[in-house]
Design goal:
The complex is a heterodimer of chains A (362) and B (352).
Chain A lengths: L9 H14 L4 E7 H9 L2 H4 L4 E8 L1 H4 L2 H11 L4 E5 L13 H6 L3 E4 L3 H10 L4 E8 L4 H13 L5 E8 L1 H10 L7 E5 H7 L4 H8 L2 E5 L3 H16 L4 E4 L11 H10 E8 L3 E10 L8 H4 L15 H5 L31 H8 L4
Parallel strand pairs in A: 1-2, 1-7, 3-4, 3-5, 5-6, 7-8, 8-9
Antiparallel strand pairs in A: 6-11, 10-11
Chain B lengths: L5 H4 L20 H15 L11 E5 L2 E10 L5 E2 L2 E2 H14 L4 E12 L4 H18 L3 E9 L7 E11 L15 E4 L5 H7 L19 H11 L3 E5 L5 H13 L2 E5 L7 H10 L13 E4 L4 H9 L8 E7 L6 E4 L5 E3 L13
Classes of the chains: A alpha/beta (362), B alpha+beta (352).
């Protein structure tokens, strides 16, 4: 299949693997930021094929995993209301809140629907004027433009029955939080190609300069990842830092200006709590005041809900790359995709689920 | 002394997890499996059922018969390539065939919702009649119930089937043994993706049609040419090829090694799976069979499958191994090894 097969070629993969083996002279820790990249790494078995000196640390780039427990509890409270149609991306449906998940709310009679686009949620609102439609707007910079578009569309249509529960997060502040942490292990980054397709990569240049790390914008197919790793390792071995672009077929330095304008029309940057990591300053997007009518947290008065994490789940250490999933005492026993204790075991992009699903061979 | 009361003491499925039935309990993956093993086998367990084969194989005077039942709740009831009626006939014919049997007769049970248009019911029934006639297997008994509007979803169909197992044929999941080659009869994931393409809220344009088909003639060809060399037959419906292989590996206590590049996959299905984020190994099929065959018969079995129009794209996708009993490993396209686990939860709700 065009644009897929050429990035999954075994002979090419072998070539990159030998080039990587010939390049590394000491141990390096690389972090792939995005959960989609973690998924490819584990699904293709790449982590098993790398030389021992190269350790992949799986980053926090899984929107489902870093959505705060408190916000999930708010989602559950809203979804359980009889007048509400609660629309969400599929992955969020099984993320456990403090006591239940959206599937349980659905089985108890809640109207919970999986949609593939926030614009579909707007269509549901148009078709059901007597119901309140709430879209669970999670994600990084990649999903923000479509969510912004949904809000703008709802406003243009004059809808008073559409709102979003927003939990948008931003990659660069999270990278800074990881690099600035005293126990940081990460020496080079594979930046998330899809985020950069929207935002460009100019934002990463000051980070690379400040912390003297190589950052390589990387795609999602096996060969993209191998090439991104090769570029990062070559920079590390040569003592170079700065931003390079492996994913040039999709990413430019400036990114998609139209999408960026759409985001800033609807959202403003604000402090945001990350599940398992804590609050990171200026790391999220919230609705601007002029769009507060579309803010589900205000519309449904759930601002008082608070929650505490399972003490056994070490998602925070996983998401910061301090531990691997199988180093958790609950991994694969008390915590499985059927009965997840924490979000990284739920989403297919979560590091724990990827290890459980594909990685137990090792 | 009273009869033992299995269920009153405590429900074996932890109530603090899911106190109510979830859609995933019918999804064919690990949730379904746990419901069956923890609840149904606790209540009904017996040597025939415990095998968890597609149907029951029963010794009767003068030979062996296969008996199987299946219920159909697919939504929408009409889909590209078929409808709930033809699917219900093919599904049970296939379950009987997967026991190595020639299907003899079928039953049909209908649960209809008040308000279902007669025209729709006729379209379903008429297509069931045609499917049964094409297979040469009559529907010899049936039942109809009607429920209040809002208590059903238009139409649910149950079919059961009985078949006769020829002498010298012994098909059972426990017969998978190291060295066996695994053949799949054609492109995988077609039914599930065809259903997805017309599901409300997800419609996308494709020329794909469900692969729903009666596999019993194809199975008969394989059995005619390889006889006892055929060890296991399974139609990978809900939960797809991955779930079927996991069930067989667990039953037989063997491992399986797959080759990702060998799995037949059409471009349209691949494209849809890439976009929707599905793994085609977990997507349902309704006209494909997995054949576990002794290595010395593998070439002949593959020729037999390919000689049937439904098996033109058949391929050997892997083999049974001694190592890692109960686990499926797959060599990825780039040469890495990964585990192909039983599906957790569900990928696609209600596809058969």
């Amino acid at each position: 299949m065009k644009y897929i097969d050429e990035y999954r070629d075994e002979a090419e993969a072998k070539r990159y693997l030998s080039a990587i083996a010939a390049t590394v002279t000491k141990s390096w820790n690389l972090m792939e930021i995005c959960g989609g990249q973690t998924h490819t790494v584990v699904k293709a078995g790449i982590h098993e094929m790398l030389p021992d000196q190269v350790t992949l640390v799986h980053g926090p780039g899984c929107p489902v995993c870093v959505t705060p427990l408190e916000l999930i509890d708010k989602a559950l409270a809203i979804a359980a209301r009889p007048e509400v149609v609660f629309a969400s991306f599929g992955d969020m449906i099984r993320v456990p809140g403090s006591k239940q998940d959206l599937l349980t709310v659905k089985a108890a009679g809640g109207d919970v629907r999986v949609v593939y686009s926030p614009l579909d949620a707007v269509k549901i609102a148009v078709a059901n004027p007597g119901r309140q439609v709430v879209f669970f707007a999670v994600g990084f910079e990649t999903t923000a433009p479509a969510n912004a578009m949904a809000v703008l569309w709802a406003r243009d249509l004059g809808l008073d029955n559409f709102s979003i529960l927003s939990s948008h997060v931003l990659v660069p502040p999270a990278m800074e939080a990881i690099l600035g942490s005293p126990d940081n292990l990460v020496q080079g980054f594979l930046a998330a190609g899809h985020v950069c397709a929207v935002m460009g990569y100019w934002e990463y240049e000051p980070i690379a300069a400040k912390y003297k790390v190589p950052i390589v914008v990387t795609g999602f197919e096996p060969l993209d990842l191998l090439q991104g790793m090769m570029m990062t390792l070559a920079a590390l071995e040569q003592g170079r830092h700065g931003v390079e672009n492996q994913y040039s077929r999709a990413v430019t330095r400036d990114g998609n200006k139209g999408a960026q304008e759409m985001i800033s029309r609807v959202f403003q940057v604000q402090d945001r709590a990350w599940r398992g990591i804590g609050e990171i300053p200026q790391s999220g997007l919230g609705l601007r005041d002029e769009f507060e009518a579309f803010d589900a947290e205000r519309r449904f008065d759930v601002e008082g809900i608070s929650a505490e994490e399972s003490p056994e789940c070490i998602a925070g250490e996983i998401l910061r790359g301090l531990k691997k999933p199988h180093e958790c005492s609950a991994f694969g026993t008390r915590c499985t995709p059927d009965r997840p204790l924490g979000a990284p075991m739920v989403s297919s992009e979560g590091a724990c689920a990827a290890y459980y699903q594909y990685g137990r061979a090792g | 002394m009273s009869e033992p009361d299995f269920l009153a003491a405590s429900c074996p499925i932890p109530l603090d997890e899911y106190p109510t039935v979830q859609l995933a309990h019918g999804g064919g993956g690990r949730f379904s499996h746990r419901l069956i093993s923890d609840m149904f086998l606790t209540a009904f367990g017996n040597p025939v059922l415990d095998l968890l084969h597609d149907g029951a194989v029963l010794e009767v005077e003068g030979g062996r018969i296969a008996f199987s039942t299946d219920s159909f709740v697919v939504k929408p009831m009409f889909f590209p390539g078929g409808n709930i009626g033809s699917l219900a006939v093919h599904g049970t014919l296939n379950d009987v065939a997967m026991c190595g049997a020639h299907p003899l007769v079928l039953s049909a049970g209908f649960i209809l919702e008040e308000g279902l248009p007669m025209e729709d019911l006729w379209a379903v029934v008429e297509s069931m009649g045609r499917a049964a006639e094409a297979a040469g297997v009559p529907i010899v008994t049936g039942d109809t119930k009607v429920v209040d509007r809002g208590s059903g979803d238009g139409i649910y169909v149950n079919t059961s089937g009985i078949g006769v197992i020829p002498e010298g044929i012994d098909i059972s999941p426990v017969r998978a043994r190291p060295g066996d080659k695994i053949i799949v009869s054609g492109q995988v994931a077609v039914h599930g993706i065809a259903i997805m393409s017309v599901r409300e809220g997800l419609e996308f344009e494709t020329a794909l049609e469900s692969d729903t088909a009666d596999l019993s003639p194809l199975v008969a060809r394989v059995l005619d040419s390889c006889g006892d060399g055929v060890h296991v037959l399974r139609d990978p419906t809900r939960g797809g090829v991955a779930s079927a292989l996991n069930e067989i590996a667990t039953s037989a206590g063997v491992g399986v090694l797959l080759d990702e590049r060998a799995v037949p996959l059409g471009d349209e299905v691949r494209g849809a799976c890439e976009i929707l984020g599905f793994d085609p190994l977990y997507v349902a099929n309704e006209g494909k069979v997995l054949v576990f065959v002794a290595p010395q018969c593998a070439d002949e079995a593959l020729r037999a499958v390919r000689s049937h129009p439904l098996g033109e794209d058949a391929a050997v996708i892997g083999e049974v191994v001694d190592e890692h009993p109960g686990r499926i490993d797959m060599r990825s396209r780039v040469g890495g090894i990964r585990v192909v686990d039983m599906l957790s939860g569900e990928q696609l709700p209600r596809i058969c």
